[in-house]
Amino acid sequence: MEIQRKKILAQINKAFRVTPAVGLLGPRQCGKTTLAHQYSKKSSEKIHFFDLENPNHLSRLENPMTTLSSLEGLVIIDEIQRSPDLFPVLRVLIDKNPKTKYLILGSASQTLLKQSSETLAGRITYIEMSGFSSDEINNKKSDFLWIRGGFPKSFLAKNDTVSYSWRQGFIKTFLETDIPNLGIQVSEAILRRFWTMLAHYHGQIFNASEIGKSLSVSYHTSRHYLDILCSTFLIRQLQPWYYNTKKRLVKRPKIYFRDTGILHTLLSLENKKQVLNHPKMGASWEGFALEQVINFLNLRQEDCFFWSLHTGAELDLVFQRKGKLWGIEVKFSDAPSKTPSMKSALSELSLSHLWVIYPGKETYALDKKISVVSIDNLKSLTL
Prior knowledge:
The chain is α/β, with parallel strands linked by helices. The protein folds into two domains: 6-128, Rossmann fold, CATH 3.40.50.300; 142-380, no CATH class. It has helices at residues 6-16, 32-41, 55-60, 64-68, 86-96, 114-119, 142-148, 152-155, 160-181, 188-199, 208-215, 219-231, 260-266, 272-276, 281-296, 340-349, and strands at 21-25, 47-51, 74-78, 101-106, 124-128, 204-205, 235-240, 254-257, 305-308, 314-321, 324-330, 353-358, 364-367, 370-374. The strands form two sheets. The chain has a nine-stranded mixed sheet with strand order 6-8-7-9-10-11-12-14-13, sandwiched between helices. It is globular and about 65 Å long. The model has no long low-confidence stretch (mean pLDDT 92).
């Protein structure tokens, strides 16, 4: 079964109207290669595909200028992080023949692909993708997506046991192979312990000193491990929203697993029954819902914030759009009600609107500026 990811395909088309190169970035195994093939099938141009994990393709690019300079149409280069020295060559080729398009797939963020942002400035548009989202599966299996996560081979597995086993393999391969291939020198065993401990911080303020002490590493090492997992699209870090106030604000970031299937695997939770009986169940669903909202609204990492006061008032997600400030609160509840935190957020932040996302089916108003929205009806988030 192959799910057509129409939304991202449309984003690629739009990006190519602006720049001759498009960088599609996301975690390993999230479907980038499949998406590239979907895009190429819809293209009338001649397609040239290079997979840098394929030794034959890699050898063909030992002299990249010679190999690529004569190509016209669409050139797809998969796993670009394995040969970052290609970026200066691509800059020359793009300037020489801007009619040739380049679709570049990478499993590392722009931070790790620094060379691309430096050499291809103004020539490339980056699109960030993850596993399947609820709108791509027509909201029919949102619970299924929550438990297994959005990685295609996990989500589409024939049963929970196969899905769980695939995720265990993903974690093992990521630690043993993917991290070294990115040139990152770190102990596999310690990073696994850190990642596992991080599962218990999901949805909470990240305390680098506390987690570092548990691992017998420094604050800076703990921060470095977090940066690795963020740069490989496995952890989302939400920064606090700052504004002019005399009230004491929480100033440390919140962390969420981008894929709840990976979270559940690190918590040794194999199926829905086990997840529902676990103390992190509410936090797990909160992270899942936030990720769906962020994907639905096409929010960039740098656009996403949370708001929290030391008095206890808080809001899960704050973002700007159209020159206004908007808020999202997530409640794992059958019938969310208006809370003091919501009232405080509306007045303190002058929000244009606040949406409360919950697992129920109905969508309704709580207030003139507060709406309750079903996780299966995110199209109601009209700005």
